[in-house]
Predict the structure.
Amino acid sequence: MKALLRNYRQSPRKVRLVADLIRGKNVPRALTLLDSTTKRAVAPVKKLLLSAVANAKTNNRVASESALYVKEIRVDGGATLKRGMPRAFGRSAPIRKRTSHIFIELAQRKQESRGPAIKGQKKKSPRS
C-alpha cells in the first residue's frame, strides 16, 4: 500500500507543507483537506494518494478506502539542477532548482477493543 513520486520539480520545503496536512489522517479526510488547500503541490500529492489507494485495492484486497489512513508520508530532496544568474561585473550567482521525492504509505486502522482493559475497571466516558 505504497506509492512513490520521484523528481517532482518543486522544492521539498514547499511540498512538506502539504504533506504535513495529511499525515496520520484517514484517506477521505485527507482528500477533503487537499481539495480545500491552495498550494501547487496539492495536485501531485493528491494524485499520489489516489494511486496508493488503487494499489491497496488491487494488491492488498482492501474493500473500501475509508478503512485506510496515511501511515507515512515522506518528502525527500531529489537531484538539484544547478543554474547561474548573471550578476554585476561579469559574475554569476548560483540558482538551485530543487526536486522532491514523495513517498506515501497507507495502512488499515486496527479495531480498538470497546471493553475495559482490566477486568472490573470502568470505561471512561469519551470527551468532546
